[in-house]
Write a structure and sequence with these properties.
Largest interface: A-B, 29 and 28 residues
Largest sheet of chain A: 7 strands, mixed
Structural class of chain B: mainly beta
Largest sheet of chain B: 6 strands, mixed
Oligomer: heterodimer
Number of strands of chain A: 11
Number of helices of chain B: 0
Strand content of chain B: over 45%
Distance between the termini of chain A: 36 Å
Shape of chain A: globular
Structural class of chain A: mainly beta
Distance between the termini of chain B: 41 Å
Order of helices and strands of chain B: EEEEEEEEEEEE
Radius of gyration of chain A: 13 Å
Order of helices and strands of chain A: EEEEEEEEEEE
Chain lengths: 116, 117
């Protein structure tokens, strides 16, 4: 089982460029999430999805967009990269409908993004 | 709103010492879940434990133990006889069990644990 797969592992962007961070899971999980991790700040939720075609904002959605056309994939789009988006991005997934908060999140290995 | 506070930013110990990582949480929900995750230097996030709000029994798993106290809203994590491989960032996290929570986690800031040989 691959679990949650994120690509790329590393990326350097120039200010104003755009890119898509890919996330795929093969566990048939309904729920998927994007978090960003800044030093000393823990992880903050950017967007989440509870199923194909359903997405919603998290705590820090500005500057990002998502889509969920399939159960497996949950890409994160940065349209106009800014230095404030320099961070490590984690995608995660979990089963849904089990008491919601009960089961743990499965995380990908992260994408380290630098915007200069 | 939910909040998780890990007041210890960094802890440094020598191998074989015991170390406790503190976690204090805030929530208005009566049913919720608490988690600990480990992030080793390689960067991935590893799930360690989940505890629901109705189960205040302490848990021990090898050298790891967890103390959950609702009265003080704390969910502390102790490593006994620490080892160099325990060096990592440890995150405490909270999720409520409501129908619109969708399993979203609120994370603490993390505690960097360094175990010296």
């Amino acid at each position: 089982n691959a679990g949650v797969t994120q690509t790329p592992k590393f990326r350097i962007l120039k200010i104003g460029q755009s890119m898509t961070l890919q996330c795929a899971q093969d566990m048939n999980h309904n729920y998927m999430y994007w978090y960003r991790q800044d030093p000393g700040m823990g992880l903050k939720l950017i967007y989440y999805s509870v199923g194909a075609g359903i997405t919603d904002k998290g705590e820090v959605p500005n500057g990002y967009n998502v889509s969920r056309s399939t159960t497996e994939d949950f890409p994160l789009r940065l349209e106009l990269a800014a230095p404030s988006q320099t961070s490590v991005y984690f995608c995660a997934s979990k089963v849904g409908g089990d008491g919601e908060g009960n089961s743990p999140l499965h995380f990908g290995n992260g994408t380290r993004l630098t915007v200069t | 709103a939910q909040k998780v506070t890990q007041a210890q930013t960094e802890i440094s110990v020598v191998e074989k010492e015991d170390v406790t990582l503190d976690c204090v949480y805030e929530t208005r929900d009566t049913t919720y879940y608490l988690f600990w995750y480990k992030q080793p230097p390689s960067g991935e996030l590893v799930f360690l434990i989940r505890r629901n709000s109705f189960d205040e029994q302490n848990e021990i798993s090898g050298r790891y133990s967890w103390n959950f106290q609702k009265s003080t809203s704390s969910f502390n994590f102790t490593i006994t006889a620490s080892q160099v491989v325990d060096s990592a960032v440890y995150f405490c996290a909270l999720s409520d069990a409501g129908g619109t929570s969708y399993g979203k986690l609120t994370f603490g800031q993390g505690t960097i644990l360094t175990v010296h040989p």
